[in-house]
Amino acid sequence: MPKAKTYLDSGNYLWNSGMFIWKSSVILSAFERFLPRLYKKLIQIEPYIGTSRQQEEVDKIYPALQDISIDYGIMERAENVVVIPGDFGWNDVGCWDSLGSVFPPDENGNITKGDFVEIETRDSIIYSNSRLIAAVGLENMIVVETSDAILVCPKKKAQDVKKVVEELRKRGREELL
Questions:
Q1: What percent of the chain is predicted at pLDDT more than 90?
Q2: CB neighbour list of residue 7: distance below 8 Å, 6 or more residues apart
Q3: Structural domain that includes position 150
Q4: Per-residue exposure over 2-31, b if at least 16 CB sit within 10 Å of its own CB, e if not
C-alpha cells in the first residue's frame, strides 16, 4: 500500500475503482481478441438470455470460465480505453467489514440485516437471509447466514474470507462459491 499512497499523493495517477462503461459489442470483441477461450464459453449463453433456461445455462458454464479479472485480461491490454476522472462518493463494498458505509449502525454500533436478536453485542455485523441469528456477548464480529453457509469471524479477519474460498476450491466445493 505505500506505493499506492505515493502514487495518489503525487497527483499524477488516478485510482481504478473498477467502474466500466462500454457497448456490449465492444467488450465482447475484446473478450474474443484477448480471452478467446473465455469468449467461446460466454457466447454459449447467448441463445438462452431472456429464456427460462438462462440461469441453468449460466450455472452450467460459469464454473468452467477462466479465472481472470477484467483488469488483467482486457483493460491492461486494450488500446481503446479512456480514463475519466471523477470526484464523487464511492465505497468498495467488496467485503463484509465495509457494510458500515452502506447501512448505518444501530445504537450499539451493530450493522444488521434480517432476523436477529442480540444481547450485549457491540460493533458487529449480523446478516441473515432467512434464519434467526441470536448473538450473545459478541464484539467486533461478523456473522453471516445464507442459504448454504454460515460465516463467523472477527471483523479484523474479514479479508481472510478469501482463504475460505481458496480452501473450498481445494476441497472441490465449487457449489458453495
A1: 59
A2: 13
A3: 96-176
A4: eeeeeeeeeeeeeeeeeeeeeeeeeeeebb
Name 151's bridge partners: 144
pLDDT score recorded for residue 18: 79
If you search the block for the grid coordinates 466445493, which residue do you land on? 173
Strand partners, 111: 125
pLDDT at 40: 95
pLDDT digits (tens, 9 = 90+) for 42-93: 999 999 999 999 999 999 998 889 889 999 999 999 999 998 888 776 666 6
Nearest Cα residue to 123 out of 97, 159, 91? 97
Instruction: Give the closest residue to 168 by CA, choosing from 147, 142, 149, 153.
Output: 149
Res 16: pLDDT = 78
Residue 81 lies in a domain: no
Residues 70 and 112 in one domain: no
Structural domains in the chain (count): 2
pLDDT in tens, 123-160: 999 999 999 999 999 999 999 998 889 999 999 998 88
User: Minimal CA–CA distance to 158: which of 115, 111, 90?
Assistant: 111
CA distance 117 to 139: 14
pTM: 0.56
d(CA 122, CA 32): 50
**Sign of the alpha-carbon torsion through 32, 93, 1, 12:** positive
